[in-house]
Amino acid sequence: MVEEKEIVANAGQEQVSKKGAKKQAKAAKKAEQKAETAANIAAADAGDGAIDHAAGRYGLSPMIQSQEKRSERVFVAVHELSNHVGKGLLWLRGRLHTSRAKGKQCFLILRQQSSTVQCILAVGDVISKQMVKFAGNIPKESIIDIQATAVSVPNKIESCTEQTLELCVEQLFVVSQAKAQLPLQIEDASRPENTDDAEGLNIRVNQDTRLDNRVLDLRTPANQAIFRLEAGVCRLFRDILTEKGFTEIHTPKIISAASEGGANVFTVSYFKDSAYLAQSPQLYKQMAIAADFDKVYTVGAVFRAEDSNTHRHLTEFVGLDLEMAFKYHYHEVLHTIGNTFTDIFKGLRDKYSREIEAVGQQYKVEPFKFLEPPLILEFAEGVAMLRGAGVETGDEEDLSTPNEKLLGRLVKAKYDTDFYILDKFPLAIRPFYTMPNPDNPIYSNSYDMFMRGEEIMSGAQRIHDPEYLIERAKHHNIDISKIAAYIESFRYGCPPHAGGGIGMERVVMLYLGLDNIRKTSMFPRDPKRLTP
Amino acid sequence: MVEEKEIVANAGQEQVSKKGAKKQAKAAKKAEQKAETAANIAAADAGDGAIDHAAGRYGLSPMIQSQEKRSERVFVAVHELSNHVGKGLLWLRGRLHTSRAKGKQCFLILRQQSSTVQCILAVGDVISKQMVKFAGNIPKESIIDIQATAVSVPNKIESCTEQTLELCVEQLFVVSQAKAQLPLQIEDASRPENTDDAEGLNIRVNQDTRLDNRVLDLRTPANQAIFRLEAGVCRLFRDILTEKGFTEIHTPKIISAASEGGANVFTVSYFKDSAYLAQSPQLYKQMAIAADFDKVYTVGAVFRAEDSNTHRHLTEFVGLDLEMAFKYHYHEVLHTIGNTFTDIFKGLRDKYSREIEAVGQQYKVEPFKFLEPPLILEFAEGVAMLRGAGVETGDEEDLSTPNEKLLGRLVKAKYDTDFYILDKFPLAIRPFYTMPNPDNPIYSNSYDMFMRGEEIMSGAQRIHDPEYLIERAKHHNIDISKIAAYIESFRYGCPPHAGGGIGMERVVMLYLGLDNIRKTSMFPRDPKRLTP
């Protein structure tokens, strides 16, 4: 690799002599032959062997190995260019989004995340024919450094985010070269989903090709926006709860006993023993409450060994979990969680409008509607609404996925909200540690929350009395000896508490109205996918 | 459980008739006999059978099942009591820290996390003999509700954090009763480590007893402070990096291939296949960089199947990881990380002084010293300092743990800092993806950072050129086919980048000067411990 430093075109600023340029160009050709990926870049001496007056102002940079600091080079971001029009030479680093050489000119589009700007190289005093050809042959998606001046343009450049200016390039170096053949084209992966293309060029990239080549797929403006908004969801969740007096905790993922009965749990080899991956941080959140942390949240990986191949199941996802001691009624917690959601929705609407718009460019989605305070319905009311719509469903029957979605539509039609809370689920369909409803024993102090008709969080008041917990566990035919440690946690005084677990990827998927959870997990895991 | 609602002393505010009181007292007695844990609480009619004029103002509360909202009861926090002196009756919920009945009086200490206040019950118009006896028999660590007035006291109460006031109790109910026999006493678990007790009562609680009973152990003032400060470390890490333009990402913990060669990795059964637990999010952070996220961080579980039973190794810990594209020199990243640490230390010093002080009450520790900007030494300088101190060590030899600690002491003596950065580690002792130093091939563009002489983060410039990465992997005799996906990530253009991984628990341990990482992991995992 060291020799490559010498064989590429000089990245320095001095003009090189004719002899030097020839030697360098020859070396560059050798480098090309060596590097498979460089094959389609024209060497400086391609063409008629004429003197290249631009030599030294373009080429392949040596691999950046931290040889020098170059702190004199101040780089400008594409989205800040409008402040730099007419202010002399600027440096920019970005990706070559597209290039088009046409006779004595070459048009490039330089991309930085979601921002793009047109760049022009025209043969003249500064730019040589060879340099134009070199520019036209750089593989798309390569990282390039350019030195250029920003100039205003009379007509809007529709194909770029910077529409009122372009860059006149004077130097151009390839910092990291992409393969000539890409497994997917960013333009195809970015194309709007639901539009008919008059020219019949409806090329789309399917989900598996995207995920197999995630490093490329994530570069689309929609994906850049989705994962920035996802970071926003976590940030808002934490900031809002911290403001309310919650403490962040970290709970172990490797556990000695399966948390919810042993089904759907991944087994881990642990030295000479076996262990499991936690399906939920619930026990640990509850222990933190019993240990006087009062209000806690945790953000972390949650594992489900469910062989569900659906649009909304992952085997590993990020849980936004919280647990809170209350004084007398679990609605103290229910309202805290509900208001946290409302505040997250407001935060996304106010601080992530650019990202929401970018996603909207590719996926057509209705804006997310919510009420403040959020709508709370009792489970029995939901059942009544479903029955009103002609659905037959029992009082203690869980909501099927179609009924869940139908109820979401009924709620939207009646209350104009995409978020609501369903309270007091039937006791029979909730886990043993759920506190029964004191007024009607067929129900429980438990709740689910929904976005666009899909469940995104489940929670409940937990039984904090060890004797009653044993009674309820026995009722569920659970082997008490296997949950002894759990029960023991409540023997040293524990305040009444409630909480819940939120699926981060589902929140982002449903907030944006996307159709698949794999669009909101950066590197999704499902029963059939473990890579990349 | 439902019947228990009727048999405990009435938690309402009305006076009950003599007949009612007797019936209730009898019922309370029955409840006691039933509930094993209630056995040592005196029932209201214990003693001479006299009329109890305090009946209804104390007793075991029914299990709080969200029967009522009681929103009229406003609770006051112990640490806010000084604002409520002489302002009438207040409600407080907390733990019974200690109780001492003496004739016609009973002194309780009520605890809320780290705050404590003295409460007094004295037989008189409001309080009965029976009520004093009841109070004296409540097991320590039970959760209680009291109604009381706050009054100033002439002499400082040394045993409480509220030293200028006490509470005159008028009502007292047990919300959640602790077992009478606790596996450890909070007072023992809170006792200062390095003091000699004149009375010879040097009872300490050993590490395993603490961890086996973590729900109790975590209630000590030092532990309450440690985990609040730990939450602060994460919060500062994220806020500082977000401010610098970093985006949070989430990386999968279940991976298809062992990230660093296959040693020390936990195996997971994944449906019909095997998978592994990620030893580091590094590959995914790098992919995020190759996918144009520019600067990323992630906070999450990291797994090491190392059979190391030391004071500083865990098999599962929380990684604070970051990765950043740079322009020309990895020192752009090194300085970013170094300054992030300085900002974290400043944030802890400024915002967590109460927590630091609370830890200092139990563990004697020197304040943490740091320089701004942080000290950066080259590895070779560190070797020279060690040799100057008489240690024999080779130029390309890794630092042994004793040498690491010695160097920390030498640096502290010379520069008066507990934090420093060691730059340019020998290439031979770093992983294959580490970028060699361009100036001297025995060194590399890699660095470790140290707190109080122990390594808390390791990082490097990574090789972003796929051909060079293959060359280096071959040099390390790594099977290229097994890292094909990793190499492939760099074939579509990737900016030069560097990053590192920080062990959260180590940062907290060393910032506070604690001696064991199990003190800073809420539920630690090591080769011998998987519970609780």
From TrEMBL, chains A, B:
Q: What is its main location?
A: cytoplasm
**Reactions catalysed, as given in the entry:** tRNA(Asp) + L-aspartate + ATP = L-aspartyl-tRNA(Asp) + AMP + diphosphate
Q: Which GO terms describe its molecular function?
A: aspartate-tRNA ligase activity; ATP binding; RNA binding
Q: Which GO terms describe its cellular component?
A: aminoacyl-tRNA synthetase multienzyme complex; cytosol
Instruction: Domain (Aminoacyl-transfer RNA synthetases class-II family profile): give its ranges.
Output: 227-532
- UniProt-listed InterPro entries: Aa-tRNA-synt_II (IPR004364), aa-tRNA-synth_II (IPR006195), aa-tRNA-synth_II/BPL/LPL (IPR045864), Asp-tRNA_synthase_2 (IPR004523), Asp/Asn-tRNA-synth_IIb (IPR002312), NA-bd_OB-fold (IPR012340)
SUPFAM superfamilies, per the entry:
Class II aaRS and biotin synthetases, Nucleic acid-binding proteins
Query: Could you name the domain of life of the organism this protein comes from?
Result: Eukaryota
User: GO biological process annotations for this chain's record?
Assistant: aspartyl-tRNA aminoacylation
Q: Where is this region: Disordered?
A: 1-21
List the EC numbers from the record. Answer: 6.1.1.12
Q: Give the subcellular location.
A: Cytoplasm
Q: Which PROSITE patterns match?
A: AA_TRNA_LIGASE_II
Q: Does the keyword Flavoprotein apply?
A: no
Q: Which Pfam families match?
A: tRNA-synt_2
Keyword vocabulary terms for this entry: Acetylation, Aminoacyl-tRNA synthetase, ATP-binding, Cytoplasm, Ligase, Nucleotide-binding, Phosphoprotein, Protein biosynthesis
Assembly information from the UniProt record: Homodimer. Part of a multisubunit complex that groups tRNA ligases for Arg (RARS1), Asp (DARS1), Gln (QARS1), Ile (IARS1), Leu (LARS1), Lys (KARS1), Met (MARS1) the bifunctional ligase for Glu and Pro (EPRS1) and the auxiliary subunits AIMP1/p43, AIMP2/p38 and EEF1E1/p18.
What the protein does? Answer: Catalyzes the specific attachment of an amino acid to its cognate tRNA in a 2 step reaction: the amino acid (AA) is first activated by ATP to form AA-AMP and then transferred to the acceptor end of the tRNA.
Q: Which PANTHER family does the annotation name?
A: ASPARTATE--TRNA LIGASE, CYTOPLASMIC (PTHR43450:SF1), ASPARTYL-TRNA SYNTHETASE (PTHR43450)
The protein's matches in NCBIfam families, at most eight in alphabetical order, are given as: aspS_nondisc, PRK05159.1
The record's similarity note reads: Belongs to the class-II aminoacyl-tRNA synthetase family. Type 2 subfamily.
This chain belongs to the protein called Aspartate--tRNA ligase, cytoplasmic
